[in-house]
Amino acid sequence: MILHWTPFDSALYHQSMKLREAVLRHPLGMQFTQEDLAIEQHQNHLVIYSWHKKVVGGLSLDGLGTASVKLRQMWVLPEYQGMDIGKRGVVEAHRFAKAHHAQGIYCHARENAMGFYEKMLYSKEGNPFLEVGLTHYVMHYSLTNNEEEVNE
């Protein structure tokens, strides 16, 4: 697998965005809006693809350059889940955020993804809340003073 930070509006970004929309948004009856895309242009986008150039997953980071970075819109094609692709993406997000002096990383995890983030040593903070009609939890990972670091 190749992990590549790609610029907003690149061909690879658009290919990834269409698949992300199919995996995360279409099942909820949602699609990207112009407002969504305006926000995306200020984020960093990781695209994960195979040696055969098939895009299989990705994620976005928001707030790079601040103490606490938000991991957003993480996805892996269903037929590639369970192959450590998501794990590799999160490890890369940790490395990238740390290289930009972040002290922590957090996400709004869907309830069905809690186990994944717990395996990645994220801790749950606060009470559940609804976002896009689904139960979510704030999950946090400390990039500093973390004795147990997840590796690939």
What does this structure look like?
There is one protein chain. Strands 1-2-3-4-5-7-6 form a 7-stranded mixed beta sheet, with helices on both faces. Helix 3 (85-99) links the parallel strand 4 (68-76) and strand 5. It is built from 4 helices and 7 strands. It has a single domain, classed as Gcn5-related N-acetyltransferase (GNAT) (Aminopeptidase), CATH 3.40.630. With 152 residues, it is of the alpha+beta class. The protein is 28% helix and 35% strand. The chain is globular, with a radius of gyration of 15 Å. The protein has helices at 11-25, 34-40, 85-99, 114-119, and strands at residues 2-6, 44-49, 55-62, 68-76, 104-110, 123-131, 134-142.
What does the average pLDDT come to?
86
Low-confidence stretches: none
Number of strands: 7
Order of helices and strands: EHHEEEHEHEE
Gap between N and C termini? 12 Å
Structural class computed from helices and strand pairing: alpha+beta
Based on Cα principal axes, name the global outline: globular
Mind telling me which CATH architecture this is? 3-Layer(aba) Sandwich
CATH level 4 superfamily: Gcn5-related N-acetyltransferase (GNAT)
CATH topology: Aminopeptidase
Widest beta sheet: strand line-up: 1-2-3-4-5-7-6
